[in-house]
Write a sequence for this structure.
């Protein structure tokens, strides 16, 4: 097993633990973080976005805007600024655990 694979598995685990913590802060079951489609639907619900955003994620180029809508709603729900939202957009394995483990609370 090469070192890149070990780092990849570690980063994925760290991201999923952070996502589970975000779900717990928003009073959602933490187990939804490890179920692939359910975690995105739950993230959309936490972000306060409409249901059709999940369909927009399937359309090329539109999915970039749809993901920005999710990240922006998530940042607003946890009272984060533009810089943090940009970090969530481009570096989610770092910023999602940060959001999960910091002291901010979800204000829905």
């Amino acid at each position: 097993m090469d070192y890149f694979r070990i780092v990849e598995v570690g980063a994925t685990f760290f991201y999923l633990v952070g996502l589970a913590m975000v779900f717990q802060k928003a009073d959602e079951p933490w187990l939804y973080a490890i179920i692939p489609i359910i975690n995105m639907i739950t993230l959309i619900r936490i972000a306060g976005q409409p249901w059709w955003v999940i369909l927009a994620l399937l359309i090329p180029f539109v999915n970039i805007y749809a993901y920005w809508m999710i990240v922006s709603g998530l940042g607003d729900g946890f009272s984060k600024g533009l810089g943090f939202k940009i970090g969530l957009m481009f570096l989610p394995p770092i910023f999602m655990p940060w959001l999960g483990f910091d002291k901010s609370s979800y204000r829905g």
